[in-house]
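Bit of a strange request maybe. I'm writing a small parser for structure token strings and I need a real example to test against, not something I typed by hand. Could someone generate the tokens for this chain?
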Amino acid sequence: MNAVGIIFSSINEKSVYELTKQRTMASVPFGCRYRLIDFALSNMVNSGVTHVGLVTHYNYQSLMDHIGSGKDWDLARRHGGIKILPPYITAFANSSNHLYSTRLEALISIRDFISGCKEEVVVLSDCDTVCNIDLSAMIEQHVATNADITLGVKSSYVSQDSSRRLMIVRSDEEGRAVEVGEYEGLKNGFEDVCVRIMVVGRKYLEELITDAIARGYTSFTKDILVRNCKHHNIRTFKFDGYFATIRSLSDYFRCSMDLLDPEIRRSIFSVEHRPVFTKVRNSAPASYVTGAIVRNSLIADGCVIEGTVENSILFRGVKVGKNTHIKNSIIMQDTITGENVYLNCVITDKNVVIRDGRVLSGHETKPFFIDKDSHV
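Reply from user aminoacidic:
Good idea to test on real output. This should exercise your parser:
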């Protein structure tokens, strides 16, 4: 079954304002050398979805620089490939001339793209989710069950400390959804949480968009899924791999620290026949100066380590000075630390300079964040 992919590059980015005020959610750096868009794109390409529409919002210059022609994902194609979909495609698609704020409004703004597709199935994916999922199996189940919508779900423990914006899906023994709603934080326990990936029939999606315009609907969850749950054939697809949703800076910190666990790292990056692709850069290997100490950390190419790095993630080109101790931190590209610096639970954006003798510490629930191009 041929499928077209639609990726929302900017949904929920206001909740991680520290990282998205100068970039879109899709281009947030992650795991030494990746961007969040890489997971959604790789999931589609590995499942044979080679026609992808990337819905943009604003601040998407870095995203375009990262995607380029799409060749690193084998999407530089004459037919299909990746298409950047700006927020204003036609006046008809966006007659009110305002930027979308919800997933359904984004779909309405690209209705011409959807109607112009020849594929029978549409795969919708957010960019704030980290997982490695077999979408081909999800598409096959969608077709076999003759579903209108198939929602990817994972059984997860939710509590009052969990995000209130989690979408909970309850289904019967046959996998048909009987209740859909946002988690209200009223009780703790295991629930099927939507991984924000879904498969929809293209003609059915066009009907939903037309109906939403006529009725003034704006929310895909509340106005489509909740209203149609009992009247339409909405199914669930069980996913049992690693899954994390980034809805806050602490979520980003926790998800990044999860990568230091070899089992989790393998479940994301070492799945057979499902690699995670990213833009290829040629950099010199990391350099470890005599006396450098590195424990349980991920170090990208081009780093120069003279001090101690422990339980941390260093992106490309990071320089760690003498007698500097970096612990439980995420240091993004081209950051430079001086000598005798101590960092604990710190996230630095790109091109940060931390001068000699600085002592900065946050907490795993409230990491200390340093803006891009800052000097401390």
